Amino acid sequence: MTREDAETVGVRAGPGSSARLAVHAASGKRLGDANPRREGPVDLRLVPPALAAWATAALTLDASPGWVGGIVAACLVTGCALLIAGRRGAGRGAGARSGRPTAGRPVWPRVTVAASLLCVAAAAASAGLHGADLRRGPVPELAREYTTVTAEVEITSDPRLARPRVGGDRMAPDSVLINAEVRRVERVARTAVATRTPVLVLVDTGSRRGEGGERVKPESRRMPGRHVSGGVPAEAGGRAVSDGGRDSEVRPGASWLGLLPSTRVRVTGRLVPPSAGGDRIAAVLRVRNRAVPSVVREPSGAQRLAGRLRAGLRAATDGLPSDARALLPGLVVGDTSRITPELDEAFRETDLAHTLAVSGSNLTIILALLLGPPGLAQHVERRGLAPRLGVPLRATALLGGALTLGFVVVCRPDPSVLRAAACGAIVLLALATGRRRSLIPALATAVLLLVLYDPWLARSYGFLLSVLATGALLTLAPRWSAALRRRRVPPRLAEALAAAGAAQALCAPVVAVLSARVSLVAVPCNLLVEFAVAPATVLGFAALATAPVAMPVAAALAWCASWPAGWIAEVARTGAALPGGGVDWPGNWGGAFLLALVTGGVVLLGRRLSRHPWLCAVCGVLLLLVVVRPPPLTRVLTGWPPPGWRLAMCDVGQGDATVLAAGGGAGVVVDAGPDPVLVDRCLSELGITRVPLVVLTHFHADHVAGLPGVLRGREAGAIQTTGFEEPVDQVEFVRKEAEARDVPVVRAAAGERRRVGALDWEVLWPPPRPAPQPDGPNDASVTLLVRVAGLRMLLLGDLEPPAQQALLRSPAAPLVRGVDVLKVAHHGSAYQDPDLIRAMAPRVALISCGADNSYGHPAPSTVAALRAGGAVVLRTDRDGALAVTAGTGGELRVTRD
Questions:
Q1: Contacts with 18 (C-beta within 8 Å, 6 or more apart), sequence order
Q2: Share of residues in the chain with pLDDT > 70 (%)
Q3: Beta-carbon-side half-sphere exposure of residue 848 (alpha carbons within 13 Å)
Q4: Within a 10 A sphere around the Cβ of 760, how many other Cβ atoms?
Q5: Which of 386, 406, 681, 783 lies at 20 to 30 Å from 777 by C-alpha?
């Protein structure tokens, strides 16, 4: 090894301190700058083979064996022929010692093509074998027949609670999702058959609403509250989320959630086909909620150790604030079981979701402690723990390998973890060696090996985003960082800006396909959390390692880690709460291509603007105004919200959320809709910072599930609800949200009257007890008559004909006649009482419903009846959010967002 090579890999040039100082002095610049001979053209020879293997694996997973065999044979023959021809050409060139030029093309393109063909053959063979695993054995056939079986399955992933989704007026019951392999399957009165087929085990832990005697409306028969397509629930997105409660609480499916990977259990369930083709599973094994798994074989020793470590980390974080308690296990080992849906949505809105998943950055941070931080890894003398402790280079490599192995075991050897370990280790190794020319070949090698090992990664959006982000950090980020430094940006800030901007530029089109939204705050949010991720991860791993032997020490470390973790959560919540934090975008590949063009244009424009600091400052201020959207400025530019608005109906999809202006940034919110993000965004646009009262007309999910969005960052006085407390699970949800924010919950009853400023309202329904038992939650809806600025506005909740008729016979009947504005009951359903419609005779009728909803809301008959009575009918699915203002002389105006 030459002295230059020794300096490249960080070996001291001599035994004396003077030699070490000389080496360190020479490392004042980056390696590429210090010795230009180490840089050169980017080596792209491995890129075509890696991309060819990637595309082949994605396309041939579903191919028939004949097609796969043909592709493999053709590529092998052609590739070998090209290699032989290239070798002969190289031999002739080497034998031409007379100086005569060698005829023909250069050898390396031919070798690259041959290597690509051989990689295609290998990828096709691997994908064909993995695809055959889904088609062979008895499981696929039994699934097509929807057969009830007794199966012996081996758990291959951590059990996770599916994220609850709102389906119409119902909240989907919790389900436990487990990836597993069926090892033995037995039909009733049949012999057990050995097999090895991947399946998804779905354990229903809650009863369906509408069963067990509860009335099911006709709409619910068309679209049940729990929507299942082909046996896979719509909420099964692979995320592990829960209500964020303490571990001491009994959670649904506790016997299933405690299973560790590699455990083998025996269970009875029904096999059904997966929801769509192209999945990694051959079938879904649906297990009834009362089934208890019978353990046939205990988990392996490694998994038991990993389980103890993960449980120790959870125990060490038990006493932390809720955000830190939820985030730390996710940051360290990808355990997101404590992340609430609200916090999870905030991370998605700000493009910070990658911090909650196990990624290469986790491993990079830990290895950086050993080898030195990435910012110093390209210097000749590294600053990690290993050089300071005198650990030799080879021993450091072995120690790094052991850490990587431990990382994979503790975080589970799932494909995502293996991908993270491979990419993180390879990229850090390339950075540590300072050989930038090896960065792209290292990434291409990682892609090739991972795709050949697990062809299903070729269809994984997570894998695509990981590769794009890593490629951005290796190619665009160094150039952008250098450009920023040339413009006098501090080096650290330049590196952070370049890394965040490059990753966002390449990943944003793919993220838009997944979320149909483009975040405008992703780069600043990622910059703000970047300095907190490393200490939280390091302290979290330290707590993980010390918990089994010294829990007080682990708890102290976890407490220290809670500060940066809390900061990360606060950044996510703040960014998600900004009204202009994101823009809707077409969620298809056409939209992705369009966004790529827009991003390229912005980058080119940014290069020109960077030469003019004042123009950059102006653009920054404009972007800040777009994101923050100060209500006075927004009103001037867009006319929304209109000045003097009295009632606003938010566009929250298939649900209800109405706001009554109470002056001074205050608003009474009637119902919260099905989505916390949508209602929070609506309130922010309206400038509502204080909510004196939240009225939840009844406990159906499309009216209460958005409650966390109403309460997010706002002072709330009280929550008022109906006295009919069903469905029980949604009643409990409201109570938990209120208790978490110390907001009192009170009941509404007919005759009650309240006033906030100029806003006055009276409760007309439900009647006080004793009263006839309502026929379901809809007929117990809180009905309000609102008076403000000479307007009379009637909000009917979801009242159906029986309650509507009873309202007309009640003492409040005179109050409902001749109203100005009507919030139409039940999203404009066909179930309306014509006598009530004639009695109300509204001037304006507002209907809150979702676009293309499966219920057919609003019903044409209802719209026709309202118009026949002289009402102007407006609906959120077509007109967007609506705001009502009152002019002088009884003038009424409705503004669309």
A1: none
A2: 77
A3: 32
A4: 13
A5: 681
- At residue 419 the predicted structure's pLDDT band, cuts being 50, 70 and 90, is low
Rounded to whole angstroms, how far apart are CA atoms 745 and 801?
28
The amino acid present at 121, given as its one-letter code, is: A
CA 29 to chain centre: 40
Please answer whether residues 533 and 365 qualify as being in contact, where contact means their C-beta atoms are separated by less than 8 angstroms: yes
**Residue 570 CB coordination number (10 Å):** 15
Alpha-carbon distance of 504 to 176, in angstroms, equals 33
Q: Which tokens sit at 17?
A: 């301190």
Identify the DSSP state of 392.
-
The answer to whether residues 46 and 441 touch, using CB atoms and an 8 Å cutoff, is yes
How far does CA 476 lie from the centroid of its chain?
Answer: 26
Q: Which amino acid is at 861?
A: S
Rg of the chain taking only CA atoms, in angstroms: 31
| Lowest model confidence (mean pLDDT) among 91-100, 131-140, 673-682 | 91-100
CA distance 602 to 599: 5
Strands 745-747 and 753-756: unpaired
Cβ atoms 167, 272 nearer than 8 A = no
pLDDT beyond 70 at 361? no
Beta bridge partners of 884: 647, 894
* Mean pLDDT, residues 99-121 taken together: 70
Residue 180 β-bridge partners: 155, 199
Predicted confidence (pLDDT) at residue 20 exceeds the cutoff of 50: no
Are residues 60 and 127 in contact, defined by beta-carbon separation less than 8 angstroms? yes
pLDDT of res. 710: 94
Contact 674, 652 (CB under 8 A): yes
Largest CA distance in the chain: 114
Q: 155 — phi, psi (to 5°)?
A: -70, 130
CA–CA distance, 144 with 179 (Å, rounded to integer): 19
Give backbone dihedrals phi and psi of 695, rounded to 5 degrees, phi first.
-105, 120
- Tokens, residue 137: 């054995």
Cβ within 8 Å of residue 735, ≥6 positions away:
745
Mind listing the pLDDT tens digit for each residue in 181-240? 999 998 866 677 888 889 999 887 754 433 333 333 333 333 333 333 333 333 333 333
SS3 state at 23: helix
pTM: 0.76
Distance CA 218, CA 224 (A): 10
How far is 259 from 265, CA to CA, in rounded Å? 9
**Residue 653 in contact with residue 169, Cβ under 8 Å?**
no
Q: Please state which of the ranges 24-28, 330-334, 483-487 shows the lowest mean pLDDT.
A: 24-28
Contact 111, 90 (CB under 8 A): no
User: Is there a contact between 756 and 661 (Cβ–Cβ < 8 Å)?
Assistant: no
- Tell me which residue has tokens 């650290």: 492
Residue type, 620: G
392: pLDDT strictly greater than 60 = yes
